Amino acid sequence: MNKRLKTYLLHGGLFIITLITTTLAGAEWMYGRLFIPVVEGMKTLGWTEFLNGFQFSIPFLAILTVHEFGHYFTAKANRVRVSLPYYIPLWLAIGQSIGTLGAFIRIRDYIDSRRKYFDIGIAGPLAGFVLALVVLWYGFSHLPPPEFIFTIHPEYQKWGLDYGKYAFQNLPEGGAVGLGDNLLFTFFKTYVADPARVPHPYEMIHYPYVLAGYLALFFTSLNLIPIGQLDGGHILYALIGRRRFRWVAPALFIGFAFYAGLGLFTPADFAIPNNDAFLDQLGYFLLYVGFLFLAFARISENRITVLLITLSVVVGQFILSWLRPDWVGYSGFLVFVFVLGRFLGVYHPETPLEEPLDFKRQVLGWIALLVFILCFSPKPFLVP
């Protein structure tokens, strides 16, 4: 078996496995049950539900594939050696997942110019974004009657279509997951869908095209964050150049971390009369400070500078939480903050060719950053 055939089999095999795992995951979201019983007597899913799961996996993987091949073909056009996409399957048999950790391509050449970084970086998210719009349009324009939710939750029938007022009270943490809002999602719900058919935010996970489109917007917004070696980082680096990017990127990263942790710890949390409870809270707080220090560690080689940045963020969060306790960030972003700070990097590889972009590319670059704003949700996933 030659090397080329082995490569095709590897990439094709990963794609097929990811198609299976995302189909399994999609069916579990659609029906609110699992394929494997985790407790005795639990009602599980079967082949019929698995086949219906393709309503999620096909549009979701189509968007992901268009995104990755946008990078691939643009790299080829710029004579940059690049691999086919590697798909990463991940299905949690005992809990719900989306069936994948995404996909990536390996760039095998040194990229020496801002223009090449720009072309390769922007092609993926813009291509995937266009298909995501199509999927969302179809999902919201073909919503089933509102009574459809009773086929998933027959227990809601006792409340009728007012189930949202009662069903989510006294649920355990994680007992329901809702889709947050962003500007595009709000537009589709308001101007494309029949308002009478739009489901409750905590029940949108059962609508496969809506869920696939929303997740596509979510991952597009993460990719377009203009920091480091994310697609948005490539775009902004190409737009403003090396010198400005070295100031803008860490400032954006610190702001992102500030928002993510806002409200996680507040002055009121330490107004505890019980000494043991106070010490426990203090311990969690010190772990948080250490977490931020590690996340910021690659901003500067000077550890004093990193410590000052960390303490400034924490103090700023405390002050703002004291002044406006109703302003709360989204702690779910902290995982991505850590991955970005420790592994993906805040800065961008420097390029010897610093030629400015032409006007057409500059317009496309600012359009891509506008797409980031349209797709970004301050609180992408909700819990009751």
From TrEMBL:
It is a multi-pass membrane protein. It comes from the Bacteria. GO terms for biological process: proteolysis. The chain crosses the membrane at residues 12-32, 86-105, 117-140, 207-226, 247-266, 278-297, 304-323, 329-347, 363-382. It is found in: Membrane. Its cofactor is Zn(2+). Keywords: Hydrolase, Membrane, Protease, Transit peptide, Transmembrane, Transmembrane helix. GO terms for molecular function: peptidase activity. The keyword Transmembrane helix applies. InterPro entries: EGY1-like, Peptidase_M50. GO terms for cellular component: membrane. CDD domains: S2P-M50_like_2 (cd06160). It holds the Pfam family Peptidase_M50. Residues 56-244 form the Peptidase M50 domain. Belongs to the peptidase M50B family. This is Site-2 protease family protein. It comes from Spirosoma profusum.
